[in-house]
Design brief:
This protein is 26% helix and 16% strand. The chain has one domain. The relative contact order is 0.19. It is built from four helices and four strands, in the order αββαβααβ.
Amino acid sequence: MYQEKIPARHVSQGLSLLPDPSCCYLLQDCNRAKTYIGKSNDPHRRLRQHNGEIVGGACSTLRGRPWTHVCIVSGFPTSHDALGFEWHWKHPRKSSLLKSISIENQWVYGKTARKHLALALMKQGKFADMPLVFCDCEQN
């Protein structure tokens, strides 16, 4: 039941009891050389766009197809919250929420590092109060 997952302060502010379908996702290219972070209301349709199966993929994912999901973070109360999470995840060196994490030059770009950053970000600031769910798409 969705009502149990929404913090009480969201209900008191008059926000919907159903969570926004927005989520943030991490993709990896077929050569396992590049990663891509994005936000979508439908990550599976968006993956098809990135892979060129349907119209609308990002220019930065034209090379390296096919792309695969590495992980998905869902449960954001609003689309605005998901956009904020995406920004902090994409820009860990500029993020005020991730200042406490030691970030070395190449550390933020690998798949494993980006997964750790997402998990760390879920525990920071306003995101710690949200009913976020981390789905590791690589585990069987």
